[in-house]
Amino acid sequence: MDYVIGVDIGTQSTKALLVDQHGAIVAQHASSYQPDTPKPRWAEQWPAVWLKAVVECIAACVRKAQEAGVAAKSIKAVCVSSLYGGSGIPVDSDMRPLYPCLIWMDRRATDQVEWVRTNVDLERLHTITGNGVDSYYGYTKMLWLRDHEPDVWAHTRYFLPPNAYVTYRLTGEVAVDHSSAGNIGGIYDIAKRDWSDEALDMLGIPATMMPERLVESSDVVGGLLSQWTEQLGLEAGTAIVAGGVDAAVATFAAGVTRAGQHVAMIGTSMCWGYINQSVDARYGLISMPHVFNGQRDIYIFGGAITAGASVTWYREQFCHAETEAARATPHGDPHRLLEEAASGIPAGADGVLFLPYLMGERSPVWDAAASGAFVGLSLFHTRAHLYRAVLEGVSFALKHNIEAGRKGAQSLDDKLIVVGGAAHSDLWMQIIADITGYPVYTIEQEVEAAMGAALLAAVGVGLISREEAQGGWVTLIGRAQPDAARMVLYEQRFGVYTDLYPALKPVMHRLQTS
After folding, report:
1. Most exposed among 1, 181, 336, 452, judged by the fewest C-beta atoms under 10 Å?
2. Buried b (16+ CB within 10 A) or exposed e, 466-479
3. What positions does the domain Carbohydrate kinase FGGY C-terminal occupy (predicted)?
4. pTM of the full predicted structure?
5. Which of 98, 100, 102, 111 is nearest to 84 (CA)?
6. Final residue of a domain: which of 223, 244, 265?
């Protein structure tokens, strides 16, 4: 029997799993950390944190597998997927990191966004890249480094996405997968599947800062260097496969390989995406080549910056009593207690609405100065009302993106697949079904991007065919059917939700500048 390892570098943890050639999990491991947030709306990470976590997770999986009788020589490949790394990691000519990676959550590049809007042909940029202008995108973060860290800029040889940096450390080979390149935004030609010299020139970013080698997510970048064999427990030369952006990899894990299929990944953030063969930046979503059949298919997605992060924020700031009470329970999970209480609150949270814009917002709002809000509060409302409102608010943000996505989608299937930590919540899955109108399915195995990375690894070294990979290795299970009465109520509330941001936008912006 042959085996592969899939690794996913996330915003708050790295996860790895070792599976056999049929997708059965033999071992898994996770390592947690937190991004650095030195200023409001800043979010960054030194790559050493990610590399350490990846090494720990791979080594632990190999060790557990060996205890189960798996020989190192039968582990044929490792694939690393990662969070969207924003700017990427600026490295010098010796490949040493010069500055932390400004990750997807970082919103500092607001001045650079205005510069692009004023000085660049936006229609041309949209046409070339299939993407818009916002501080979410990596190219605006690169411009921030150019403007604020000139010494870093002067010594930067490459900008490397997180998975490309880790792959370089493991193999000594520099390569960037197409999904990571496309997700940077304004410097990648979505039609040509290559860096855009025209766009780079418009932006004033040297083309030499972009790694020359672009690869498919299932391509083997190189073999494992011998210096890692003892630490990881793998043989020298073990194939290291390119991987890609975690949202697309998680979508692939769910078996999404054709137009019309769509998936919501709800973890720290929320990414809802679907497969298409064309893209139009006017609809306000994000596009990149898909991690499977990427020369043909485009993964188009939109999402909320703070989805699970909104839930975590609310729990940590306002639910100390539930956290303490949970410690006395067998599961030790305060979310279960909060969900039990919120389940007794009617749909619509008795008139409370939550805007989940706690770090600005991505699509389709695209406003770094947007802020979160509870609206409709009275003395009647309890923590349970607000907790339900948070779950509903993120679900409204999901529907907001689906409505934008419909405008450009060739088709959308009549079911919604949800992956990520939110899938543990029965209440949240029902709320999503009622708000979106879609039956909700989740993955039985409770693994997402890491399983997708393992599947890419297996394809990359030929353990399974591309045809076999199309169905994925996971099993989908039905979780929630939309309730007709609640759908009517939520459709009315969605109208209020979409009216709130335009109404509050002037106040939000005044608060940012006062």
Report:
1. 1
2. eeebeebbbeeeeb
3. 264-460
4. 0.91
5. 102
6. 244
